[in-house]
Design brief:
single chain; mainly alpha; Photosynthetic Reaction Center, subunit C, domain 2; two-stranded antiparallel ribbon; 37% helix
Length: 353
Amino acid sequence: MKLNIMQTVVLAGVVLAGAAIAVTTLERPPVQVTQNGYRGVGMQQLSNPRLAEAMAARNQAPQSIVSVPDVGPKAGQLYKNVQVLGDLGVAQFARTMAAITAWVSPEQGCNYCHNPNNMASDEVYTKVVARRMFQMTAALNTQWQDHVQQTGVTCYTCHRGQPVPAYNWSEDTKPPRLAGLSAGQAGQNMPRASVGSTSLPYDPFTPFLEDRPANIRVQGTAIHPNPKVPGTKETEWTYGLMMHMSTSLGVNCTFCHNSRNWSSWEESTPQRMTAWYGIRMVRDINANYITPLTPQWQAHPNGPEGGPVQARLGHEGDALKVNCTTCHQGVNKPLYGAAMAKDYPALLIPQSR
């Protein structure tokens, strides 16, 4: 069979398109398989050593600032308007402030949060935000050890040297197309990285990671009809969230679940309980720390004067919130488990709200 020029061009285009899809969606070898369960039940973890170097570079913890003795007058006695960290000696206070600057605003320096002519002033709104974030960090290290364990977290865990963490989310409930047959997409069928480039609902965070979350379920616990029994949409939300968690931690589903009985807690790995606490920790962060600060970001959507132009709000006007990727960034232990918090004792002490 002979093809004319037009048919040849079309065929070549189809072949190239297919090759592009294969290159961008299939994992190129070598792929390593590690068995983490009984043989024959599919309890395996996949990893690609080709990506290890890039992943390690993204998750390098910075060196700790040289420690100093906690002596001398207390910061709260020497300086004005010290609402957190006031019980630290001035040397330890300065060291902690230097670390926070390096973790969050290394290019902008102290002036990112402070008026250099009046360090006690709260006129730079980022100082108000930073104070609340410090209270949050201390709360995570003292109240959520079922998730963060003894490793703890610091500002760097999320920020990685940027005023706004690179990985965040905001509400995405409005359909991207507003007319025609494609108007009723029900928040899905638009492949997004947030759900592993699948056609699942691309905003599984709004229903599950805010202050009044839906149940994360794919199976009912009562006989129908029952309004608490999850429907198709709730099930797809759940699968979307699971895709997000798998990608965020760089693991397969069997990192937490047993493939012979996905819902069984008794047959799950210990990591499933850690993840259970992690979901609730994220809800606490978003509901009690991020969302209440929304008026601050609404008043200053691009940051303080002289700062980088980085959006603080999503396209629907809500604050940028956290999910699993914010901390984990592709590895099951943020920064490969580097225990940074222990070097900064102030992060391990509850702070007044």
